[in-house]
Amino acid sequence: WFTCLLHPEIDMTSNKAERALREPVVQRKISSLWNEKGIRIKETIMSVLSTWNLRGLNTYSMLRQTLSS
């Protein structure tokens, strides 16, 4: 339960994770995608872009590299 006390690099709250989920939830609510396949594709793309952003990677370069390989 108190892993953050043994590992100071771990945040005590889940605020960072909750904030990361906020934008995709809002996007899903206002999205015009109505079928499951379209929703899953969009969620996957948003997840990949968010991960690259959190890691400090250039999303444009990474997307270009991914699509060209």
Characterize the structure shown.
The chain is mainly alpha-helical and 69 residues long. It has one domain (3-68). The chain is built from four helices and no strands. The longest helix is centred in the middle third of the chain and has 19 residues, at 36-54.
Largest sheet: none
| Helix content estimate | over 70%
Number of strands: 0
> Could you say how many structural domains there are in total?
1
How far is the N terminus from the C terminus? Answer: 42 Å
How are the SSEs placed, and which strands pair?
Layout: H1 3-6, H2 15-30, H3 36-54, H4 59-68
Summarize the structure.
The chain is mainly alpha-helical. It is built from four helices and no strands.
Q: What structural keywords apply?
A:
flat, mainly alpha, single chain, 69 residues
